[in-house]
Amino acid sequence: MLADVVLEPEITYTRPAALADTYTHYCPGCTHGVAHKLVAEVIDELGLRERTIGVAPVGCAVFAYNYFNVDFAEAAHGRAPAMATGIKRVLPDQMVFTYQGDGDLASIGLGEITHVAARGENLTVIFVNNAIYGMTGGQMAPTTLPGQKTASSPCGRDVEATGLPLRMAELLAGLPGTAYAVRRSLHNVKEINRAKKAIRTAFQVQQAGLGFALVELLSSCPTNWGLPPLDALKWIEDQMLPYYPLGDYKVADGVEQL
Fold first, then answer.
1. Average per-residue pLDDT in the chain?
2. For 68-80, how does the pLDDT look when each residue is reduced to its tens digit (9 = 90+)?
3. What is the signed CA dihedral for 217, 223, 224, 227, rounded to 10 degrees?
């Protein structure tokens, strides 16, 4: 009799409507795809898909507009915060976010992101930190760790010559216009779940008009790190977390009630 029982499959998860059904250009093991999924899930859960505008950077996420079913603009290298400022001021009822890597945000765009935070622009920034320039060949970035080997620092980053890596969440947390600045990671399921909650809060901060919100995500780059994908996740845990500790670096008044 049991052989005659037909069990209907139970659907436990579907692709977020805000995430396009397409192939991506990201390397195998890269966690940009995980970050995209989290952002798309939050947009759907908050009911924001019809009034969200993203700004894509120059870098590995240069084609982000192909992967989200929301309106998108493409910015020049490092200028996503400036473009997002213009869009938000012209269309204040829209939800505007930038999606930027460390080379884009912390190097050529350092001036833009700093002044946007200082002014308290009502924007959401998703900052993906993989400690290297990914798209252009694996050069040293402002976030490259001391001693880390890259295409432009084959003997390892020499801090006496190039200085120490920038901790962007901490830096931007110190500016008066920042309402929310946190660091999360994408190296395991527990931290991915915590990252999604932070992204949700960052969008809610903008909804509430509280000011600038940044979520920094530690992300893997197996290709340029020269590691298999699983080893790259372990590298985040062993090498990046000691220098980039996870945590909430600024939670302004009103954010905790969201």
1. 95
2. 999 999 999 999 9
3. 90
Q: What is the pLDDT of residues 156-186, one digit of tens each?
A: 999 999 999 999 999 999 999 999 999 999 9
What would be the CATH architecture of the domain defined by 20-251? Answer: 3-Layer(aba) Sandwich (3.40)
The CA distance from 115 to 14, in Å, is 39
Is this structure's pTM higher than 0.85?
Answer: yes
- For every residue of the chain, DSSP letters joined together read -GGG--PPPPP-----TTB-SS---PPTT-THHHHHHHHHHHHHHTT-GGGEEEEE-SSTTTTGGGTBSSEEEE--TT-HHHHHHHHHHH-TTSEEEEEEEHHIIIIITHHHHHHHHHHT-S-EEEEEE-SS-TTTTS---TTPPTT--BTTBTT---HHHH-PPP-HHHHHHTSTTEEEEEEEE-SSHHHHHHHHHHHHHHHHHHHTT--EEEEEEE---HHHHT--HHHHHHHIIIIIHHHS--EEEEE-TTTTT-
